[in-house]
Amino acid sequence: MVRIAVSMGDPLGIGPEVVVAALATPTVRNAAEIVVHGDARTLQRAAALRGVPLECEIVQIGSLEPDPAPREAGASALEYVRRAARACMDGRAGALCTAPLSKQRVALGERGFVGHTEYLAALTGARVAMMMAGPRLRVVLATNHLSLAEVTRSLTSGQIAFVAGLAARELRQGWDIAAPRIAVCGLNPHAGDGGIFGDEDERIVAPAVAQAKAAGVDATGPWPADGLFPRAARGEFDAVVALYHDQGLIPAKLLDFQSTVNVTLGLPFTRTSPDHGTADDIAWKGNADPQPMISALLLAARLAKHVS
Question: pLDDT tens digit string along 195-234?
């Protein structure tokens, strides 16, 4: 059975609650051996709140007060991620599943922190990409957590081609898709419409698609994004390369929020996460939906078994 290292998430958010609720489901218990990296007392409180048993191995990290200050909560959540990732890097776990943390609270003590994906890339030295994988749509991002003003300055043909190639490789290895069909979004409305709405699609995106094709990827584009996503959801493509965060995440979450999973492609181990944040407004009220966490754990187990 696959051993999954789980980071508990931010103790001020819904992470502890969705973790314990997910671990109480028979499908998760039958799919993997779970080791939670976090705080035992916080997990026990969450289990009592949900009325579920807490039956898993816990790696206790530090000592946490019941209502920690935001800076302490952020620092603890990041340390849980670091320790769980190290377990995967050292071979003590076959996959990592991260409960949500607060970027804002982590950044109080970790200057420059922008997200799990970038942090894990730096920790492992890997070149990665973020995929949102759902039952009807898989979207891979060419850029992650950037302001819109930064996107056009950061996009390069080489990066887009890399992401298309990485997506194709991972789909072959993890999803058993022999010849993945990769569609690349245009950046501008109507993919630029021949330069009427900017030259980036002709100058950056089209050469990226050509580079990917030259490397053996079945890549097409740039496609106008508004028309591409319905086609991809109908099954015409195996993955879509979106050029910026909201271009890709809005359709993915709109279609299948509960079943869509954040997967980091390119790491030396499997990493998944639910497709939501800490939801502070409903934290510790006992009504957070664990289904996205369940989906993330089950996909982690399946992908880890596939590559082991």
Answer: 888 899 999 999 999 999 999 999 999 999 999 999 999 9
The structure's pTM equals: 0.95
Which residues form the domain of 188? 127-262
Q: Is 155 helix (H, G, I), strand (E, B) or coil?
A: coil
SS3 state of residue 287: coil
Within a domain: 74: yes
Same domain, 204 and 159: yes
Give the residues across from 6 on adjacent strands: 36, 97
Strands 138-141 and 129-133: antiparallel
As a whole number of angstroms, the distance between CA 98 and CA 102 comes to 12
Query: Measured between alpha carbons, how far is 277 from 273 in angstroms, rounded to an integer?
Result: 10
Q: What is the CATH number of the domain that holds 228?
A: 3.40.718.10
Residues 232 and 137 sit within 8 Å (Cβ to Cβ):
yes
For residue 308, name the pLDDT band (cuts at 50, 70, 90): low
Residues 58 and 144 in one domain: no
User: Mind listing the pLDDT tens digit for each residue in 58-81?
Assistant: 999 999 988 999 999 999 999 999
In this prediction, residue 307 carries a pLDDT of: 67
The three-point CA angle 39-118-172 to 5° equals: 100
Strands of the chain, DSSP E: 2-7, 32-38, 57-60, 95-98, 129-133, 138-141, 181-185, 218-223, 239-242, 261-265, 270-274
| Residue 122 resides in a domain | no
